[in-house]
Amino acid sequence: MAYSLNTYSQYRKSKDTRLEIYPNNDVAAELLCLHRRDGSLVLSVLECIPDSANLPMPNDVFAEIDKQVRASSNRMVVVGIDAYLSLLDEGNISAFITALFGRIDAQKLNAAFLICIDNWNSVKHRYSNPKYENSLQVVSLLGSTTYIQPPSVTIVPSKWYSDNDSVNGFHKLIESMGDFAPTGDFIVALEDFIARRAGLSKNVTQIVDVKTFAARYYGITDSLSERTIETIIVGAKGNGTPPVTFLAEQFDSSNTDLRMVLKRLNELPDDELWPAYVWWLSKTIATPTYLSKVLSADVTKQSLLRRYIVEDATQLITDVNARRFAEERAAAIREIGIETESLIIEFIRATNNYSNEDIAPWLNCGTTAECIEIIRRVAKSDLTIGVADGWKRLYPALVDYLSVDFDYGNMELNTYFNEYRKLKISDRVTEAFTRRALHSVVPSTVIARNAILQTFSADNDIALLVVDGMGAEYYPLILSMAKRRGMNVESCCVANANIPSSTEFNAISWDDSKRLSPLNGIDNIVHNGAVKHEKCTFEQNFVATLGVFTNIFNRIAEGLSKYSRVVLTSDHGSSRLAVLAHNAKLNKTLPWSGEVDDWRYAKEPANTTRPPEFEAVYNAERNVRYWVVRGYNRLPKSGPKLYELHGGATLEERLVPLIVFSKTKLVTESKQLGRKTTEQIVEKMDFDI
Questions:
Q1: Other CB atoms within 10 A of residue 452 CB
Q2: Partner of 490 for a Cys bridge, out of 604, 614, 650, 660, CB 3.0 to 4.6 A?
């Protein structure tokens, strides 16, 4: 039968070993109060469990209960049994109840054991003998009985999880469950927990697999390796932050801009965390972006740059978002710099068969390799209609070089140099232009360079910058670059240098104190190519040549910081087409007896009539008359073949730019220098911006 608390109160004063079954926690609490008023002491199973990582089994627990009850002179009330039983499997629960009834049968302990009716109902059929109830050795108390949801317990290694929501060890767990029937969710963090423990309840989840742990607590379900996941989890725990926050701090969130991610990933060590950064970024960055495309498939530290620069770009050339992807890619590549050049070359090689329209947006990183490819493609296009819009933004210096917006001051010069530049870009020469070069002469309107310089030489506030080998072909390039930079061009023209058009015949009289350091880059490329002692392609050489002009404008800017004006000019030009004509067998090697000075000139031989292929000039300083080769013919000089030739009498060899830059903003348009006639050399050029 079942007793109410009031009825049972007259029987509770006893020294026998008794099992008291309570229907709910409220009744259990009242019953415990009654025992305490009677002078009984409370013994929790918690006090019989050591503070260790192991949960003792029933025999060990009862051995400690027996010891503590026998050591007390007071009656003991044992609580916390239900919390302990909630952790055990059916076999161990049965072992505990068997041990309990063994003590009830022996009646040697002055103790009452409190147990919830739910736990009693699962075993009472084994102890149905009425003697237990009749002798009040087993007492059931009245009260409302509702099913109590068993607690859910999860055991995890403490190296992965330990915070305010967890308890450390079984001792703390049972303490947190309370003295009566427990319920709720509990996380137990155990040290050295590497294998599942035997004897525990099915309500106790034991997580020893880090992937299972990461999926359950952090939602990490991706195919990261166990080592990577554990590195994340352990690092996050040590940092006191969630894994996502930990990764963000380690990666440095200031680098999550699409422009910086590639650089950051490339510089981070190739350790267990590297794949985690990729995983985190793939969850963090916006889509669709080029980076999200790259990170959407397996990527390693070793494959990152190749994937980003070559492989994925090749697959996305014609994507609907190609232009946006290409801009994003270029910004990231520029942050890394020269390290990417070889991969850019691979990308160019892999996309050789794509149309200009498709590939142009992707050649936008500003590398030498891309500039070379742009020139190669432009050379194959129809330059009679100009450079296609797709290339203009990518390589403005090339567009500047081919510009027809600036007048040489003479229609024949305009026609000649416009055609010359187009042929040079195409790295070819025609028979017609070879004939034109032979018969073209310097217009009478062109003044000698030294005569113009003489008009400036007395001014102490003007400096001279001489660029070796910079012929008149670069005249539009200089003016166009100046316009784009908003520089003040006071006056400009093309001028006539001395012939033979080599440096040794082109001395410039100017006070050395007002000379800026000369630049020899163009002439060095003419003779040696972009890389000395290596065979260079025309495209390599031309890209390097255009690159020299950045240094030229830097030098001009430096000069204007000290002087009010800077005069830019050159000693001579050179001819690429003269070399091409020889290679195409469109020229001839002129007969000559004895040694010659150069491919393009020689001292006048005695007692010989000058052939029409030469132009004669007297050098007063040396008291020598020279014969200078006209057109693209050459003399039979021994020695290496050069990339370009100079010293001859073609327009590109003997005409040079002469441009005056001013620190002061101009109020009028640039004026022509040294005119002989009223012909306007330069059309309106609004540099004053």
A1: 19
A2: 660
